[in-house]
Structures are given as structure tokens and as C-alpha cells.
Design a protein that fits this description.
Blueprint: E1 2-7, E2 13-17, H1 22-35, E3 39-43, E4 49-53, E5 57-63
Antiparallel strand pairs: 1-2, 1-5, 3-4
InterPro entries: DUF3107 (IPR021456)
Protein name: DUF3107 domain-containing protein
Pfam family, one: DUF3107
Length: 76
């Protein structure tokens, strides 16, 4: 699953490929904001940890990973 995090005053977004479900990521984000935590923590597929200051988060986009089909389609 792909998670995109927009950071305030930064032109690029942080893109993380996570093995967690969309519901788990949404819960982590909501808990970080509700609890007043200073950091939002997220792990990716390869075991890397991402720490983002909660007050700098502009948005979080949670989407399934793109499955791209390769090749040509044959029509009838």
C-alpha cells in the first residue's frame, strides 16, 4: 500500500510503501493527531522507519499500490 504525506511549506511529498492496511495507517495518523504527539511514525516494507512532525503534516493520502499491467491487449 502506498502512503503519501504532504509536508507544509515543502514542494514534494513523502511517499512510503507500507505493508500495513489502510485502516491501520488511518488509525495511526488519527491517534498521533488526537494524542498531541509530536511525531507521526510509519514503517515501510523494507523495515525503514519514517518520523514526521505532526504539526508539519499538510495531508495524508492512503491508497493501494498501483498494479500496472505490462504488455499489449489483443482485441477481438
Amino acid at each position: 500500500m502506498e502512503v503519501k504525506i504532504g509536508i507544509k511549506d515543502t514542494p514534494r511529498e513523502l511517499v512510503v510503501s507500507s505493508g500495513q492496511t489502510p485502516e491501520e495507517v488511518e488509525k495511526l495518523v488519527a491517534e498521533a493527531w488526537a494524542a498531541g504527539d509530536k511525531l507521526f511514525r510509519l514503517d515501510d516494507d523494507k523495515g525503514r522507519k519514517y518520523l514526521v512532525p505532526v504539526d508539519r503534516i499538510a495531508y495524508v493520502e492512503i491508497a493501494p499500490s498501483d498494479v500496472r499491467k505490462v504488455g499489449f491487449g489483443v482485441g477481438d
